[in-house]
Design a protein that fits this description.
This protein is mostly beta strands. The strands form 10 sheets. It has a 26-stranded parallel beta sheet that branches. The chain has a 13-stranded parallel beta sheet with strand order 20-22-25-28-31-34-37-40-43-46-49-52-55, with no helix packed on it.
């Protein structure tokens, strides 16, 4: 007889990025399974299948047989037989089982490959752990040595307009210095300017009286004073209509554009330095001829709106004669139409639908020099077979730099950062820094960073070439560089840091060659393939590069056939963190034992300093224990050629619990404090502190407090999942009046069909990857779809929360058992042939589903079977897309005895109770307030608590 237990497979923390280990179950208390002694013909296991993808979790068990010796490995780590292994961490897994018959020596083995994916991240990260970039760590004082601070503001400015400020830290040669920190100014303490690798911007509040604003910017030892003269009164020259001859608005002009403005094909508009252009809401400036803006960094031109929250439109360069030459210009508050590409058909293909500051087509040419495109509501630009050149520019806090189809984009010494913000939570909404399809493009000496998607997405199936030289990519949730299609990509002397994947040679047939690059502290350093089951016919070459301290330095497994594509990769003459048998012709990074290795790191350093910043890598100084996953991260401001160390201590109630020292090898930027939470005891919080840094300066959080809830709060469970099968009715007519009632029989009506969510269609690009049931006949045919899904809940009275998760385009009404529980943009009046009451809602496809608290409708539930019903409406019958992806989840008070809480009372809870048995509060360290469940609590774990536990034995959600 064998005793079956449950083990939980969780990520631990070791080295610079998470590694995996097993945390075994506490004890085995009851016999659950009995096996006969007869030999089996093959290895026996259940729960997972080869080449399958599981949502959020998976579990399996490998059965042993007498007279066999077993070796069972999960991702290389040994596990036991006859034990249920539960996995909740998204990742690619390999279960390897080998056995040897003791008498004959006969051997056989089995390999099972499977994936657990996080539904909260959609389908864009299949085969990868959830990746959230680590927070930034401020640079040490030494990193600013010899630097200079450059500040750009208007020299003179009207009252009533927020004042833009641009900052850049440079070395003595004028090169951007890659430092992190906050630029402050006395009197403007609540308007700090965050530097991201040496650049950033902020807006000061609008002045309400004339005078001189003294803005003295300071960071570390750097200081730069600026004076901004606020005008006593401003006379605005109004402009609109057509400009059909050469026009010069002059120097320090004050222009109010109060109507649509068009520059004729034979005309040139010239704007002098110091001019302020105020544009009314929604307005566009069409440039069929030429516009020349002659601002300077000491006296820039500004394009803005009266209220930056009420945006203007953008520039249209749509003719072959359209040209623009902008110098020293600040542009903000454009992008009024969040659905511009849908509302303006015939303007090409764009992953993002929102309006752009600069729209270029038909060979138009635009040159931007020392320009600052900051805090725009939509995209910075878009190109269709046109030409964009940017030098010394900053693009910050737009939805994206834009998509460019054909033509050429040439960027030199530019910073493309924050799309839309470095601190926004993850949303998979195509917020790439820049999207390039066909054409010939190049980026040189550029900083690209901080977005929830990719840095460069050179996507689609179009050809073209992109050259990346001496660039720095940082903090992307997905790829720093995502190459796909028949592209030729050449990457040289470039850094990728703190990203999901550094260099990706993706779907179709890209030819990617990376030479002398550094890819560090990413999930994957260099990757052939992608996270979808598409076709991969390209080739990846990486040479003379440093692929260091990534979870996987190199990876080549693909999901179309689940193989490693070694024949499509040439990975030689690089430095790797660990030995990889698939890529043997590389050198293991060993800068401590082989000091000459440090010479390879020097060309990539963002500053020459040997002392760097160090801090606990968290976004706040107080965490819940559920926020921890086996470790606490400590991060450097940058990699360095120095060996860095820092001491850490963990205290509970002022009593030391653990301590140690972290050491960062040169090139390493992230380490984990190998922290195991103390056992459940009578404490409510503990502190983690770092101190005594060597070759580093404490520049951020030195201590965090981790709180422990006194009692379990709630149990949550999903009842309806994305991908579930629904019954649906095409809205070519009104369905039966009781279609949303529990009593309605949809099985007997042939007009009700079956399909998995998401249900919808996509005639352009965007929702395709999220559609499981394709409504190919809906466009120009019917406005709406009705759908039903039954679910079961035994005790509605126990519920304390009910949540509808739904991604949709464009509007819906939700019902439970015939009662309306929620709606968004419903039709008015409600009828099958009426449009949704919005013109600009888009689904987020692939990201976390938007969620709505419908707990007020718990009373609509009944014990046993219930039905969630939806009617979803499009905004136009000819719309290019439609989709809905619903989920439903509940929250309830845990049963007494559910000590985890995980929704059931079982052996694991019994083990927790056993560990605290006969203990008392204040008497010894084994007392666990979770287990003091008799009413009222008596601060002793005894028979009274056991009786309550027995009353709830095997109760489950």
């Amino acid at each position: 007889m064998k005793c079956s237990r449950t083990l939980v497979f969780q990520p631990g923390k070791s080295g610079s990025l998470p590694r995996r280990r097993f945390i075994p179950g506490l004890v085995c208390l009851l016999s659950l399974l009995t096996f006969a002694g007869s030999a089996q013909a093959q290895i026996s296991y259940e729960g997972v299948a080869d080449k399958e993808v599981y949502k959020d979790s998976a579990s399996f068990i490998v059965y042993s047989e007498e007279s066999y010796d077993y070796t069972v490995l999960l991702n290389g780590d040994p596990i036991a037989t006859d034990v249920t292994i539960e996995i909740s961490e998204p990742e690619y897994y390999e279960l390897y089982v080998h056995r040897r018959e003791q008498s004959s020596g006969a051997e056989d083995s089995k390999l099972v490959r499977f994936i657990v994916r996080a539904t909260e991240r959609g389908i864009s990260e299949v085969g990868l752990p959830i990746w959230t970039p680590y927070p930034m760590i401020d640079s040490a004082a030494a990193e600013f040595t010899g630097a200079q601070l450059r500040i750009v503001t208007p020299a003179e400015y009207p009252q009533g307009l927020e004042i833009p400020v641009i900052a850049r830290v440079e070395d003595q040669s004028g090169n951007r210095l890659g430092v992190i920190g906050s630029v402050m100014a006395a009197g403007f303490e609540y308007h700090r300017l965050q530097l991201l690798r040496g650049v950033g911007s902020v807006f000061l509040p609008a002045a309400t009286e004339p005078g001189i604003i003294s803005y003295t910017a300071q960071i570390q030892s750097l200081q730069k004073p600026k004076e901004i003269t606020i005008e006593a009164s401003t006379t605005w020259q109004t402009e609109s209509g057509n400009i059909n001859s050469n026009t010069d608005w002059g120097t320090n002009a004050r222009i109010h554009i109060d109507g649509a403005l068009t520059i004729g094909s034979s005309a040139t508009l010239t704007i002098g330095p110091g001019s302020i252009i105020k544009v009314d809401p929604d307005l566009e400036i069409a440039v069929n001829g030429s516009i020349v803006v002659n601002g300077t960094t000491t006296n820039p031109v500004v394009f803005t709106a009266q209220d930056r929250n009420v945006p203007w439109g953008g520039f249209l360069f749509e003719a072959s004669t359209s040209t623009g030459d902008f110098n020293g210009t600040i542009m903000t508050a454009s992008g009024a139409d969040s659905n511009w590409f849908s509302n303006n058909p015939g303007h090409g293909s764009s992953h993002r639908k929102d309006q752009c500051l600069f729209y270029l087509s038909n060979g138009a040419r635009l040159t931007l020099t020392d320009c600052y495109l900051v805090a725009n509501h939509g995209q910075a630009g878009h190109g269709e077979d046109s030409y964009l050149t940017m030098t010394g520019c900053l693009v910050q806090k737009c939805t994206t730099v834009g998509q460019y189809n054909g033509g050429a984009v040439i960027l030199e010494d530019c910073a493309l950062i924050e799309f839309p913000s470095a601190t926004d939570p993850y949303v998979d909404a195509d917020n790439d820094a820049i999207y390039l399809t066909d054409g010939v493009h190049s980026l040189t000496d550029c900083l690209i960073g901080w977005a929830p998607d990719d840095g460069i997405d050179a996507g689609a199936s179009a050809a073209g070439s992109v050259k990346v030289d001496n660039c720095w990519f940082e903090s992307f949730y997905h790829e720093a560089m995502a190459w796909s299609g028949p592209k030729i990509a050449r990457v040289n002397d470039t850094v990728t840091l703190n990203c999901g994947q550094g260099i990706e040679c993706g779907y179709s047939a890209p030819d990617v060659n990376a030479v002398h690059c550094l890819s560090t502290a990413n999930l994957v350093g260099a990757r052939f393939g992608d996270n979808y089951n598409w076709t991969y016919n390209g080739f990846l070459t990486v040479s003379n590069s440093l692929l260091l301290y990534n979870l996987r330095d190199v990876w080549g497994r693909n999901w179309d056939d689940w193989t490693v594509r070694l024949a499509q990769m040439d990975i030689q003459n690089n430095y790797l963190s660990v030995v990889n048998a698939n890529y043997p012709n590389n050198t293991i990074w060993a800068p401590v034992s082989v000091p000459n290795h440090l010479d390879e790191l020097v060309p990539f350093l963002p500053t020459p300093a040997s002392t760097v910043g160090i801090a606990l890598a968290t976004f706040q100084d107080s965490l819940d224990i559920t926020d921890l996953s086996g470790g606490v991260a400590v991060r450097l401001s940058t990699f360095t050629t120095s060996t860095v160390s820092v001491d850490y201590t963990i205290e509970t109630d002022g009593v030391p619990y653990d301590s140690g020292t972290l050491e960062f090898i040169p090139g390493e930027t992230v380490k984990e404090i190998p922290f195991e939470p103390p056992g459940l005891k009578d404490f409510q919080e503990f502190d983690i502190t770092i101190s005594t840094p060597v070759n580093a300066e404490l520049t951020g959080f030195q201590q965090i407090t981790v709180t422990v809830p006194a009692v379990p709060f709630e149990v949550t469970q999903k009842l309806i999942f994305e991908g579930d099968e629904w019954r649906y009715f095409k809205g070519t007519s009104e369905p039966a009046a009781d279609w949303n009632d529990l009593s309605f029989d949809d099985a007997s009506d042939p007009c009700w069909l079956s399909g998995n969510t998401g249900i919808g269609y996509e005639a352009d690009t965007g929702y395709g990857p999220c559609i499981a049931t394709n409504l190919a006949d809906m466009q120009n045919s019917y406005w709406s779809v009705y759908a039903r899904k039954t679910f079961t809940i035994d005790e509605p009275a126990r519920l304390i929360g009910l949540t509808l998760h739904i991604d949709f385009d464009d509007g819906y009404i939700a019902y439970i058992n015939g009662t309306e529980v929620h709606s968004q943009y419903p039709p008015s009046p409600v009828a099958y042939n009426r449009p949704a009451s919005t013109s600009n809602h888009e689904a987020s496809c692939g990201s976390t589903l938007p969620q709505y608290d419908i707990s007020a409708s718990i009373s609509a539930l009944v014990p046993g079977t219930n039905v969630l019903a939806l009617q979803v409406h499009n905004t136009t019958i000819s719309s290019s897309d439609f989709i809905f992806i619903p989920e439903l989840s509940i929250a309830a008070d845990p049963y007494p005895g559910d000590f985890e809480p995980d929704g059931d009372v079982d052996l694991q809870d019994f083990a927790v109770l056993a560990l605290s048995w006969q203990s008392s509060a204040g008497g010894d360290g084994n007392y666990n307030p979770y287990c003091d469940i008799n009413t009222p609590p008596d601060y002793s774990i005894d028979m009274l608590d056991l009786l309550v536990f027995v009353d709830n034995w095997l109760a489950e959600f």
